[in-house]
């Protein structure tokens, strides 16, 4: 009943090419130039351009030019399959289709180079062109070539903008019937491609193929520069931009460029102010989904990332990674000029400004510039008079947190800085340095331009409220105050 003999190998000598010039058809399509010998076949072809008079399957969206073809197709959904394959359990609605299917098992039309089998001789003939590299069908507009005429026809619609296959549910149009069939799965929810490992389903075959690599660990796309491997080809394309420096996605507002389209989408929200990710607890909004995920840990208190050394917990994995460097001493970010190393990348960025002299943060009042944003924030308090750090004992206020820390030692009596020679203690680190220079060394680094005297320190903490003069020693200030006030010592 079925073919079980020797494999038939198709080659160019077995194929007789019939050109249209031998017997031109009387019916010519004005859209694509295809010719037909019968009126019926010509009318069926015209419906592929117009999109009209097509019979659409209500279950999967596939469309047919003949009503009989639709009827046969509907049997697939109703499972009225009477002809079953004895080798793979596939079922068909007609004996003819089963016979064609059996050619796959028998290997009647098998490619000698890759072993792929086909139901028909024509399929094998077309497949052979892949190995030979032959592409006989050329686009007249862009000269792109194709192995089969159907591909050229579908491609030509790109140039003329023709989309004859329209979805009857949402009016989306497509240039190819296969694309419409795939689109209909959005409406029907059909996902025919199931994973055999975790049973996750997909609407397209390539999505399943990509998913399977999660289970197999296969990463077929390898970087030619650093040999890093990826599961998907577009992941490799994005990765290569790290090496080439290519940033094809540019912001239309500030012209900042990005290597990925999603980075540009997120960046544009800075200009538009859009924050689509809202917290369901406090309604705080964010421009990125990961920011919302991190924020939610404030409400839940979840800190899943624990340090294995000191058991400190973090809400984010990157914070744990940074924290671990305190234990390991790792400083992966090195300066290319002086080789100084840092734990954080932004520390290196700030440090590089020492070498470049770049000071991007400018004061809007006096135009003084700073290399760091926090320095500008502190400086602005000189103009605004803001002193946010208040002493809890005497309510004295300070513009900087370190000033408050030093002040609190007046109340607590803490003197954390000790001289290694005399064990004398001090409230401030610079006081220890001055002490050591005065008593334990002859170093006098500060030079007076008027009398030539050398001093241990340039610090003059004693300030005259009348003339603004500053003094190293408190007694000198007292003598000056006598001059101003006339009071006796």
How would you describe what is shown here?
The relative contact order is 0.03. With 489 residues, this protein is of the alpha+beta class. 39% of the residues lie in helices and 14% in strands. The chain has 16 helices and 34 strands. Strand 15 and strand 16 form a beta hairpin. Among the domains are: 136 residues, Double Stranded RNA Binding Domain; 54 residues, 2-Layer Sandwich (Double Stranded RNA Binding Domain), CATH 3.30.160.60; 116 residues, Double Stranded RNA Binding Domain. The strands form 17 sheets. A two-stranded antiparallel ribbon has the order 1-2. A two-stranded antiparallel ribbon has the order 3-4. It is elongated and about 125 Å long.
* Count, helices: 16
Q: What is Rg? A: 40 Å
The profile of the biggest β sheet is: 2 strands, antiparallel
Question: In which range does the helix fraction lie?
Answer: 25-40%
Name the CATH superfamily assignment of the domain at 27-162. Classic Zinc Finger
Instruction: Give the overall form.
Output: elongated
Strand order of the largest sheet: 1-2
Strand content: 5-15%
